[in-house]
Amino acid sequence: MTNELVIQAENLTKTFGSFTAVDAISFSVRKGEIFGFLGANGAGKTTAMKMLIGISTPSAGKATVAGFDVSSEAEKIKKNIGYMSQKFALYDDLTVKQNITFFGGIYGLSRAQIKLKTAELVEELDLKEVVNQLVGALPLGWKQKISFSVSLLHNPKIVFLDEPTGGVDPITRRQFWEMIYKAANNGTTVFVTTHYMDEAEYCDRVSIMVNGKIEALDSPKNLKTQFGVENMNDVFLKLARG
Which terminus of the chain is more exposed, N or C, with fewer CB under 10 A? Predict the structure, then answer.
């Protein structure tokens, strides 16, 4: 992790009619940081993420991602980030190899680069037995790990992960986080939402949103000290109860 800022938001706001989903949030994220973006359903974290990845225009405030303005340079942002949604981005009716080839093309990689990346993923994830199988036939844990690897194919500066470990067993969740650590150690910034409070402990810093506002932002250790509790779940509960 370095002091270089790759995400900066200042009073970022999103309204829908009279409803304010994201209420003037301000924060920054450093290069190589694992930044947890937490909040209950409806807290505004997904809406905020959509603005940061360039698919939703802010109603007010400003933000830059990878050096580009979210309001005026959304297409440039998309070329410099990776994104893994809750429902993943893989196509179930394509094989693992076909998915890698397809997304490599979307990300602008050459045929030679796609071939190299495919070989690297097959080796790294031990995909030899499944590389020619349809993704739809694979267990959920495999899909998640492959989807995360595909989101990194083009060596993005930042990868956004929206609830990446939902629905899998604890062992697979731990393996997934080992992949996140590796990406961060290689200089990729990881911006992750999760509803598993124990996963907040794995982040360098976390922000906690309540009703569209960031109510706490610091390292897990400092937040636990600040609120006088032993775990992040209790921090979250205290904030949720006001």
Answer: C
pTM, two decimal places: 0.91
HEC readout, the chain: CCCCEEEEEEEEEEEECCEEEEEEEEEEEECCCEEEEEECCCCCHHHHHHHHCCCCCCCEEEEEECCEECCCCHHHHHHHEEEECCCCCCCCCCEHHHHHHHHHHHCCCCHHHHHHHHHHHHHHCCCCCCCCCEHHHCCHHHHHHHHHHHHCCCCCCEEEEECCCCCCCHHHHHHHHHHHHHHHHCCCEEEEECCCHHHHCCCCEEEEEECCEEEEEECHHHHHHHHCCCCHHHHHHHHHCC
pLDDT surpasses 90 at 238? no
Domains parsed from the chain with CATH numbers: 5-240 (3.40.50.300)
